[in-house]
Specification:
heterodimer; A: Butyryl-CoA Dehydrogenase, subunit A, domain 3; 9 helices; 0% strand; globular; B: mainly alpha; 15 helices
Chain lengths: 179, 309
């Protein structure tokens, strides 16, 4: 039977190094992709990924068993990203992304069946075109499987705000992906 | 019945999961895991942390206590004013304060104690004699101060009486040359009313220098103040110098500074004889002449008549 995140966390706080490795292997991919698709920069993603885990290690004694580990982990990552964005100047939109955000003319859309490759490419561009808050809400839902309440907790906003952001993100993606 | 929006969401999530799934580099994994292991290795048992905290508190308490003791000692020995930092000046300030009855003008008072001490009455001593006597008194003051550093109480008491020394009337009225040649008499006691006024002045100085005295930083200061606080000795209690002391102090004196005016006629004549026996006929003759001037009715012994002119 697979141990829960909370059980592994408690074991690690108690001195079980293997418990942390299990936790890390379980969540590292999700966290890395969440950061990468939010930041869209490999170097910044790696930096914040490592910093997130460093903070997890440092704050392990303050962790409460009642809190869901994945939510806590993503909350730390979210705060680091907010700080990162505040330090960064407003980035110029990537020309390719900007073009992808625009609706392609009808005549340029091949009504023929898209290849899977093309679908993935359009989804990536549509994600990048989303506002940061909406993209983050979608990523927390799609990547980490969080519900509305957990998204609100991880991002530090109210439930209705989180729900609204997620709804707008879905609508925008459908709009962009609809042939 | 399924909501169309839910269907769209499922399709979107499926499409998302079909995207490439990048993973962190292996080096990043190793760095994070190493950091976590290192953090676990540095964790100490709760008991050792408790003991370390208690030990730190004990060390802190000791350090604060020691620092507080050192601070109190420093405050107790720190000089409070320029007067306090100069032992001799502090003693002079005490003397000057008594003379001027102005403790705040301590420095000026110390100068006045040496330079502007009360002059002898012109009816008793002529001005020239007074000036010469003042110089002699200054030299005597210095030697007395040096002795006062060794014998704190006695020396400081003499210093405190310095302003009044010149006011003491001589015990025998002598001519001016003899008065100038006379060795320094022991400091007489101040007048009764000034002696009575000394304790209030001392109490004022005690207030101004109370902290220095309490700290015991300067023995001279405390001695001078103690001397002021004591009742001034009366003139009768001042020990008179013996003849030997007078003669011993007479080594560097001039030829006419041979016999004090305080000796009885017999003692005076004996001193003249000793001068003659030592071969100092000229000084013996001078002293005999002075003797005759002071005691004109006293007969000159036969053995000394050859010294008469």
């Amino acid at each position: 039977m697979e141990r829960s995140d909370e059980s592994l966390m408690q074991a690690w706080v108690g001195g079980d190094a293997a418990a942390f490795e299990a936790l890390y292997l379980r969540h590292k991919g999700m966290l890395f992709r969440y950061l990468l698709r939010s930041l869209k920069q490999q170097a910044a993603t790696e930096e914040l990924f490592q910093e997130t885990w460093v903070r997890v290690v440092a704050a392990r004694l303050r962790w409460q068993p009642q809190a869901k580990f994945s939510t806590w982990l993503l909350q730390i990552a979210h705060n680091l990203m907010v700080d990162h964005w505040r330090r960064q100047r407003p980035a110029e939109p990537d020309p390719e992304t900007a073009l992808a955000a625009l609706d392609a003319p009808e005549e340029d859309r091949p009504d023929a069946q898209w290849s899977q490759f093309e679908q993935r490419r359009r989804l990536q561009r549509a994600l990048e075109a989303l506002p940061d808050e909406q993209r983050e809400a979608f990523l927390l839902r799609a990547e980490a499987g969080l519900g509305i309440e957990e998204i609100a907790e991880a991002t530090g906003v109210g439930r209705e705000t989180a729900k609204s952001r997620l709804r707008y993100a879905m609508a925008r993606l459908r709009e962009l992906l609809t042939p | 019945m399924t909501d169309p929006s839910e269907i769209d969401e499922k399709r979107l999530l499926e499409a998302y999961r079909a995207l490439p799934r990048p993973e962190p580099p292996a080096a990043l994994d190793a760095a994070v895991l190493a950091h976590a292991r290192a953090a676990l290795a540095t964790v100490r048992p709760a008991r050792s942390r408790w003991v370390a905290g208690l030990a730190s508190a004990a060390v802190l308490t000791l350090a604060v206590g020691t620092g507080w003791q050192m601070r109190e000692n420093t405050l107790g020995t720190a000089p409070l004013s320029p007067i306090d930092s100069r032992p001799e000046a502090g003693a002079e300030a005490v003397v000057g304060a008594v003379a001027e009855s102005t403790p705040l003008e301590a420095d000026a008072g110390s100068k006045s104690a040496d330079n502007s001490a009360p002059r002898p009455d012109s009816r008793d001593v002529q001005p020239v004699a007074a000036e010469q006597k003042g110089e002699s008194a200054t030299r005597q003051d210095r030697s007395e101060r040096q002795r006062s550093m060794q014998d704190e109480t006695a020396g400081s008491a003499q210093q405190s009486r310095q302003p009044y020394r010149a006011q003491a009337p001589p015990r025998a009225v002598v001519p001016a040359p003899l008065a100038a040649a006379a060795p320094e008499a022991p400091p007489p006691a101040p007048p009764a009313q000034e002696a009575a006024a000394a304790p209030p002045a001392a109490s004022m100085l005690r207030k101004s220098t109370a902290r220095a005295v309490e700290g015991g930083a300067d023995g001279t200061q405390s001695t001078a103040i103690d001397a002021l606080a004591k009742p001034a000795p009366q003139a009768d209690s001042v020990p008179e110098p013996t003849e030997n002391e007078i003669l011993a102090n007479d080594d560097d004196a001039g030829s006419t500074r041979s016999i004090p005016q305080t000796l009885s006629p017999l003692e005076w004549l004996d001193a003249i004889r000793r001068m003659r026996d030592q071969g100092d006929t000229r000084r013996a003759a001078d002293a005999l002449a002075q003797f005759r001037a002071v005691y004109p009715d006293e007969p000159v012994p036969d053995d000394l008549k050859n010294l008469l002119p």
